[in-house]
Write the structure tokens for this entry.
Amino acid sequence: MKIISLLLLVATLDASTTRFLTYNILNYSDDSSREENYISILELIEPNLIVAQEIISQTGYDNFKNHVLEVLEPSSWLGAPFINQTAQQDIALYFKHEDFTYINTNAINTAQSSGTRDVIEWTMMHNQSGIEFNIYGVHLKASSGTSNAVQRLEEVTVLRNHLNNLNPNSKFIVAGDFNIYSNNSNSEPAFDMLTSEGENSQGQLFDPINRIGNWHNNSSFADVHTQSPRTTQFGGGANGGMDDRFDWLFISESMLSTESDVHYMEDTYEVLGNDGNHFNDAINNGNNSAVSNEIANALHSASDHLPVYMDVWFDDLVYGDSSIVISEIMINPSAVSDSYGEWFEVVNMTDMTINLQGWTIKDGDENGHIINNIGNTLLISPGEYIVLSRNNDFSINGGLISDYVYEGISFSNSEDAILLMNVEGEIIDEVQYTNSWPILSGSSIEIHDLNLNNNDNFNWFSATSTYGDGDFGTPGISFNGTLKTDHSMDLPMSFSLSHAYPNPFNPSTMVEIQNSSGKNLKLEIFNLNGYLIKSVENRWTSLGAYNFTWDAKKEANGVYFFRLSDVNNSIIRKVVLLK
């Protein structure tokens, strides 16, 4: 029945969001004076994978892991095997082994002259989803001028040809220090080589935030500049102030789409510490509105580049059979406040009774509730509708008959979601609604054909039958059921009807009737389709408590409703016959 919508709350639910970081850490071999700065910076970013440039040889590779990452989060990090690039500075990849598994390393022979570096290709696997992807570490020829721009073009031409030959729909990230000054195709043809469609668009790179232009020494790009956070010369780094966008995280076209099983999460691309107010200035000069003074100083002292990171979503959501379907939702009650009157209804689409005990309910803000019912059961029979709500007090919840009360879940009136997961963590059903759905104040939305996709707003309708205190909906029955559940209550109630015991039952169950007024009461029993099975009246006309036992040995398995009423009010209890 379900058509899976990967637009659903990709930033939430249980799918994995991981943070990728690229950072030129400036000629690092073993520098204890800067290691505390790196630790402070990484502690704030909380990356899951790091591509680091300007690691100096195997020594720098080992020390960064041991003196920085192991101090930051002991026993959490691994490194991909180190490749010495025969240049003074090397590129390294570190990753949290809980999140990723290393598969392979390959050097792309982009170095065109002594002192330039190859691009390093790592094949990795995301553990929870099992999805493989490639990530590339880049550090192109530095410095301005025509000869350096030509060398950068030669380097990226080799890289682009390699990317063009990857399998179609490959997922890849290209991260690093590109030392490219602008998108001008004449002065910096390397950028056009990387990002243009070309004859083969397979290897085309995309800027996730699409901030492309002549960014060199241009205040219009001040908020994305990554070099240099310094205006004084020290430690071998550049000192020009914030005026260049050298450091990038590029992605493949397939990662742009939220329909992809691996994609960039919108609005997560960040240059740490760049508040857009330090153009041609040091990052720690005066106030920095993006980070604390401590972090601004750490960024200033650690390197002449700022770290750049983004979040990537991997689809590790597991979907089970659509045994339970969300069939009705009261998003915005009118008779009572949302905090009292919100509810949703589910129906069992199978031919077996299902126990919802231990299942999880989630909303769009990733608030969760694990169903924990008295007696360790919340049974829903074949074809049965049950109601889960925020409140089960009939006198204050709008006159709703509720089967279970959840906590910590609330529905936005304009855009939200409901998610049901079984005890194995499989998503059994989910509904994501927006303000384009037929949501009216005081009216539930209901799906009329349970075999249609309930993530499509065209399959939902505003309810037109009243219940309880006057809101519209059919909680606990099908949208066209004939069993009336509306109440026009005279408070206080002059009678009560207990919940049936046992329930489920076979073949008989009992309810207690309390008559507090001496008025004539009528007890009716209906089946799930709303047809009257039995009616008893003129039996409880005196004050007092009475027990009524129903023997259902001649009836079929299923859901039945007891309705006790006088001329003004009625109370309904649901029972389940299991033979």
Remarks:
- The domain at 16-314 is CATH 3.60.10.10 (Deoxyribonuclease I; Chain A).
- The CA atoms of residues 41 and 295 lie 7 Å apart.
- The chain has three domains: 16-314, 324-472, 495-577.
